[in-house]
Amino acid sequence: MRIQLADVCNEDCKDVVVSTVCSLSRSIKGFPFPNAMTDDETALNIVDMVYKAFESIEGKEEYKIIGVGKLDFLKKKILEETNIIPPTFNETIPKELILKKDNSSAILVNFNDHLGIRVHSFGFLMKETCERLFKIEEHFSKQLPFLFDNKLGFIVHDMSYFGTALFQSSLISIPGIVMMRKFDMV
User: Fold this and answer.
1) What is the band of 28 on the pLDDT scale with cuts at 50, 70, 90?
2) Max intra-chain CA distance, the chain
3) What is the dihedral of CA 116, 121, 125, 126, to 10 degrees?
């Protein structure tokens, strides 16, 4: 599913935006959502499926695989506070993080959904950030059977994200808004 960002993206506020995040979630057919999983074997099957799909991704050498279950509390908190992983997820099942070495892209396995992709950029780069996200998603969509309904769209754990399961946000600078006199844009 493609979105024409040129129709919705207004770059007039690029001088007050600190960073942009685009993310999406996907569930794989035939598996319960991660928050409902009770056995490691099911979760490990999903990890294996994603790893096999990841093996052929362009630029694979630019990523590192992180076993989230092996991270200590402080490292998990840092990943949460930098918006790389979500703060809440099922702690009892195996999950993995495939992180680009420059931290600009993250592929999350078995967090809130089976597959989550997050792409970060500095500044107001909504179109470019989403294009990078869609390129990664397109790679996985060719190899994994995502849960999709013709009327509802992509089905994920959170009903408010049914359809595209796409989320975009920008972090803005309040002092930048004041200095640039862009009060009416917020």
Assistant:
1) very high
2) 55
3) 10
pLDDT for 8 equals: 39
The separation between the first and the last C-alpha atoms of the chain, rounded to the nearest angstrom, is 29
- Is the pTM value of this prediction over 0.85? no
pLDDT at 135: 95
> What residues does 137 pair with on adjacent strands?
none
pLDDT band for 55, please (50, 70, 90 cuts). Answer: very high
CB neighbourhood size of 17 (10 A): 20
Average pLDDT over residues 122-127: 78
d(CA 13, CA 126): 11
Q: State the SS3 of the chain.
A: CCCCHHHHCCHHHCCCEEEEEEEEEECECCCCCHHHCCCHHHHHHHHHHHHHHHCCCCCHHHEEEEEHHHCCHHHHHHHHHCCCCCCCCCCCCCCEEEEECCCCEEEEECCCCCEEEEEEEECCCHHHHHHHHHHHHHHHHCCCCECEECCCEECCCCHHHCECCEEEEEEECHHHHHHHCCHHHC
The more confident residue out of 14 and 150 is 150
Residue 5: what pLDDT? 40
